[in-house]
Amino acid sequence: MVKEFECRSAGVDCPFMVRDENENELTSLAQQHVKNTHQKNMSRDDVLRTARDV
Ligand SMILES: [Zn+2]
User: Whole-model pTM?
Assistant: First the structure.
């Protein structure tokens, strides 16, 4: 099952989007982006709650 995380879904006006079928990878890519680009920390739960199945 592939999950998709979009910054937009997290309420940030940013075109970043990542798709991955591996939850751990998706989480770490999203966390890195949010930290580096938005100086915010998202927990794994936050990322997975925001992500949707595609
Ligand atoms: Zn972003």
Answer: 0.93
